[in-house]
Backbone:
């Protein structure tokens, strides 16, 4: 499939799973745990995800895999802060409003840079493990 879909196009479960590097059964499981994941289901039961759904799923993936939260922890964040926070998390926004309070802008920037470096190191280590 050489053609790229537009950003507003719906995605099948296999396309979402492939783009986020997760298995399709994981997406189905997350649907049961997170009410904010609600793909459209066609007559044959096929799932189609809106771009907003994909952003939410990516945010949940970040919270679970990068931030190390549990499913209950992510459920609490969704309940307390909503889907917009989860979507923003997928785009790299980090701290909850209460996190980082009392830090100067320079300190927050240093912490953000350190976090980004650690993420890069983690990705390299995971890539080495895979090979």
Residues:
């Amino acid at each position: 499939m050489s053609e790229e879909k537009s950003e507003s196009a719906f995605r099948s479960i296999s396309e979402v799973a492939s783009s986020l590097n997760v298995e399709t059964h994981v997406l189905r499981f997350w649907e049961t745990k997170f009410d904010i994941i609600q793909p459209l289901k066609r007559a044959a039961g096929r799932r189609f995800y809106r771009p907003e759904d994909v952003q939410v799923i990516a945010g949940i993936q970040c919270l679970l895999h990068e931030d190390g939260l549990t499913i209950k922890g992510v459920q609490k964040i969704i309940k307390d802060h909503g889907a917009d926070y989860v979507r923003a998390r997928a785009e790299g926004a980090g701290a909850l409003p209460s996190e980082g309070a009392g830090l100067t802008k320079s300190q927050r920037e240093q912490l953000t840079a350190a976090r980004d470096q650690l993420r890069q190191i983690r990705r390299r280590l995971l890539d080495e493990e895979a090979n």
Remarks:
- The CA atoms of residues 33 and 72 lie 9 Å apart.
